[in-house]
TrEMBL record:
Domain spans labelled Beta-Casp: 240-365
SUPFAM superfamilies noted in UniProt: Metallo-hydrolase/oxidoreductase
All residue ranges annotated as the Metallo-beta-lactamase domain in the record: 13-235
Pfam families: Beta-Casp (PF10996), Lactamase_B (PF00753), RMMBL (PF07521)
InterPro entries tied to this protein: Beta_Casp, MBL, Metallo-B-lactamas, RibonucZ/Hydroxyglut_hydro, RMMBL
Natural source organism: Cytophaga hutchinsonii (strain ATCC 33406 / DSM 1761 / CIP 103989 / NBRC 15051 / NCIMB 9469 / D465)
This protein's encoding gene: ysh1
Identification of the protein by name: Metallo-beta-lactamase superfamily protein
Length: 451
């Protein structure tokens, strides 16, 4: 069995791992690499022959794990995609959105031709959580819930190879305990080898209050104490639904001020419909609210913005309000307009709720930069910039230790650290050694291991 790291190696984005056994090739995740837009625009994405891949297994729908599946199909991949049902439906939305963005970028870049006639969603084979799925007589796959977003899973692969049983666990993105809407991550089967994400491998989440208490305080300070507007950049799938759910809980308790809440993302609106469809997969609190015939996401004064014209008209709304828009890192989408229009407004508060990679406006704001650049123009920052990690979909370093704690150290042959900044991996490696783990690797891009 051979494992090659073609993405998220010593960096956060672009998850892509190639597992080979007796001629059968499985790609676990096929994500976009936000740090290399040149590859996205020119199509130089794959260091292997796409037509030789037999199967893709997808941990969850976020584009840094799924975004290059359409390109893989264009490059000649003819196989199927294995995932949970929610991941399949959420991915369909993201593929369509990514195609729109890439068409625009390719037109600007005048690069490879834009052929988006493929239908990746036709390739999906949805499978249930915690059920063994036989790929063939030698390979079995099991998906285990890990929170993070709806449908997200760890991937456990068991291979019968030359009279021996070998097992490998791909963590995917591990969610956190007590997260809005989603159940806590579940225990995966014992594995010989584990690929563990390290997004927060050297950080501990600071917030300890319930999400609704934090949001209530922020809304009061931003929109009531000083009557201004609160802008929240958030990913369309996952973060937006958690925020809407939290605002809805406040509204159900009559603790949300009577102000407009604009959700400005068509993708998020469709994603919220899918979340509602699969509400049976949510945590006990959300199920209890649903059992009372209450909506999980809809409340008075919520306005779903549909068109770009309506989006721009929000600038003319002069009363206190909340604007929830994507993307979370402020790399594209309608949020850029809202930030550009309000970044110099001292009565505006910008609430950042998640991780942002270096080189994005979100990262610059988190770093406290006094000016940001929009299309080669420097704009001073006068708005108040605040941050909360309560909506981070990734668990922290203690949660990662808990996740790995389900594995018997004596039976683990190797732990591979992926999907994190290099320093985060180094720090997490040190922590693992302190916890008694051995045989830890930090693979480089393109590095292969015979397992």
């Amino acid at each position: 069995m051979k494992l090659t790291f073609w993405g998220a190696a010593r960096k956060v984005t672009g998850s892509m791992y190639l597992l080979e056994s007796l001629g059968y090739k499985i790609l676990i995740d096929c994500g976009s690499d936000f740090s290399d837009r040149h590859k996205v625009l020119t199509g130089g994405l794959f260091p292997f022959e796409a037509s030789e891949i037999d199967l893709v297994i997808l941990t969850h729908a976020h584009v840094d794990h799924s975004g290059n599946i359409p390109a893989l199909i264009r490059a000649g991949y003819r196989g199927q995609i294995l995932s949970t049902a929610p991941t399949a439906e959420l991915s369909e939305l993201l593929f369509a959105d990514s195609a729109y963005i890439q068409r625009a970028e390719k037109k600007i870049a005048n690069s490879a031709p834009s052929d988006y006639s493929y239908k990746p969603v036709d390739r999906f084979i949805p499978i249930a959580f915690n059920k063994d799925f036989e790929l063939n007589e030698r390979i079995t796959v099991r998906l285990t819930p890990v929170g993070h977003i709806l449908g997200a899973a760890s991937v456990f692969v068991k291979v019968e190879e030359e009279g021996k049983t070998k097992t490998i666990l791909f963590s995917g993105d591990v969610g956190r305990d007590n997260y809005p809407l989603l159940p806590d991550p579940e225990q995966s089967p014992q594995a010989d080898y584990v690929l563990c994400e390290t997004t927060y491998g050297n950080r501990v989440h600071k917030e300890t209050e319930p999400a609704e208490e934090i949001v209530k305080r922020i809304v009061t300070e931003a929109c009531v104490d000083k009557p201004g507007r609160l802008i929240i950049p958030a990913f369309s799938l996952g973060r937006t639904q958690s925020l809407l759910y939290t605002l809805n809980k406040l509204a159900l308790k009559n603790e949300l001020p009577p102000i407009k809440v604009f959700t400005d993302s068509a993708l998020a609106a469709e994603g919220t419909n899918i979340y509602s469809k699969y509400s049976s997969l949510m945590n006990g609190e959300a199920l209890a609210i649903k059992a009372q015939d209450e909506s999980l996401f809809d409340f008075e004064n919520l306005d779903h913005v549909k068109t770009f014209k309506e989006s721009k008209n929000i600038s003319n709304y002069l009363k206190p309000c909340i604007i929830l828009s994507s993307s979370g890192m402020i790399t594209g989408g309608r949020i850029q307009h809202h930030i550009r229009q309000n970044i110099q407004n001292p009565y505006c508060t910008i609430l950042l709720v998640g991780y942002a990679v270096e080189g994005t406006i979100g990262h610059d704001l988190l770093a406290g930069k006094q000016t940001i650049r929009f299309k080669k123009r420097s704009i001073p920052v006068a708005a108040k910039i605040i941050y909360t990690d309560i909506f981070s979909g990734h668990t922290d370093v203690n949660g990662l230790i808990k996740y790995l704690g389900h594995q018997d150290k004596a039976k683990l042959k190797k732990i591979f650290l992926v999907h994190g900044e290099h320093q985060s991996m180094l720090d997490f490696e040190k922590r693992l050694h302190e916890e008694g783990y051995n045989n830890i690797e930090i693979p480089d891009y393109g590095q292969s291991y015979d397992l």
